[in-house]
Amino acid sequence: ILLLIRNPKDVATSFYHFSNVMSPLPSYETWDDFFVAFMTKKMPWGCYFEYLSEWNKYTDNENVMTITYEELKENPVLGVKNIAAFFGISLTEKELQSVVERSSFQSMKKNSSKTHGAFGNILFRKGGVSDWKNLFSEDQNEKMDKAFEERIGRTKLGTKLKYEIYCKA
């Protein structure tokens, strides 16, 4: 199992934009309304912190590889190499480069109408990291950091995310 995790602030930001264009999901008048719902576990898919906490139980399982979105954005070649090694797939340098290019956000967004139909425009928005800085107030940032620390900060997944988010920023 490949477990891809992401900075909870960027998860919230991404889902805010996604839910406001995806009609079956609740939409929110403002970012502040969404933030309250996200922090009080009122999301259609559940609480992201609880999701991470559940997956944390399996971090030592040899059949589970955890990687962060931030790692893949920072060094996609190394990320693909590590994923291929985990699955026991041998790649030539040419194959490796092809996978890296074809799995880039820009490439997937460009081909999204072919791969996902009309839904592609909804799924692929920006693909960056730290977009949360465009929405979060200082107070919201502090609340998210506090919730992160209290709920998953001392877990293996929490430590991995903290390293990617705070130590490399």
Structural notes for this entry:
There is one protein chain. The chain has one domain (about 1-165): Rossmann fold (3-Layer(aba) Sandwich), CATH 3.40.50.300. The chain has helices at about 10-20, 30-40, 50-55, 70-75, 75-85, 95-100, 105-110, 110-115, 120-125, 140-150, 155-165; strands at about 1-5, 65-70. Helix content is about 60%, strand content about 5%. The protein is built from eleven helices and two strands. The chain is mainly alpha-helical. The longest helix has 14 residues, at about 10-20. Helix 5 (about 75-85) packs across helix 6. The chain has a two-stranded parallel ribbon with strand order 1-2.
Could you give the topology of this structure?
Layout: E1 2-5, H1 8-21, H2 31-39, H3 48-56, E2 65-68, H4 69-74, H5 76-86, H6 93-102, H7 105-110, H8 112-116, H9 120-123, H10 138-151, H11 156-167
Parallel strand pairs: 1-2
Helix pairs in contact: 5-6
Q: Which residue ranges are poorly predicted, with pLDDT under 50 across at least 5 consecutive positions? A: none
Query: What can be said about the biggest beta sheet?
Result: 2 strands, parallel
Amino-to-carboxy terminus distance: 28 Å
CATH architecture: 3-Layer(aba) Sandwich
**Helix/strand/pairing category:** mainly alpha
CATH topology: Rossmann fold
Strand line-up of the largest beta sheet: 1-2
Mean pLDDT: 90
Approximate shape: globular
Any idea what the radius of gyration is?
Answer: 17 Å
Q: What share of the residues does DSSP label as strand, in percent?
A: under 5%
Compute the number of strand runs.
2
GO molecular function, one term: sulfotransferase activity
Domain Sulfotransferase: 1-155
Protein name: Sulfotransferase
Enzyme class: transferase
